[in-house]
Specification:
single chain, about 110 residues, alpha+beta, two-stranded antiparallel sheet, two-stranded parallel ribbon, 4 strands
Length: about 110
């Protein structure tokens, strides 16, 4: 996640903070996903995303832009926490121009 300040001229004014974490999937990572992301099973082995850290990072967000918002918003909720105190909208937006079929890869 990237926290940024947004200027009135409809542009990112500054990156304020960055949050990065991995979560070990329940199945091995398919080779095509490794090729696409560079993330290997060894990199995510034993890793878990800390829901409290996610909630803390996003707590002051006015707007959340997410590639896979339906998946991302479930993380804090699954741990029994609210996803954010923010009342702002969540925009599910593909930020790259590429078309990728991610069906069933949640």
């Amino acid at each position: 996640m990237v926290k940024f300040c947004y200027a009135e001229q409809d542009e990112v004014a500054a990156v304020v903070d960055v949050f990065t974490s991995f979560n070990q999937p329940s199945n091995p990572t398919p080779p095509e996903v490794v090729d696409l992301t560079g993330i290997t099973d060894e990199m995510v082995s034993g890793q878990r995303i800390d829901p409290d850290a996610v909630v803390s990072f996003a707590a002051d967000a006015n707007v959340v832009i997410a590639h896979h918002a339906n998946f991302d918003r479930k993380l804090p909720s699954a741990a029994g926490r609210s996803s954010s105190k923010s009342t702002g909208p969540v925009l599910h937006k593909r930020l790259s121009g590429e078309s990728t079929d991610s069906t069933g890869r949640g």
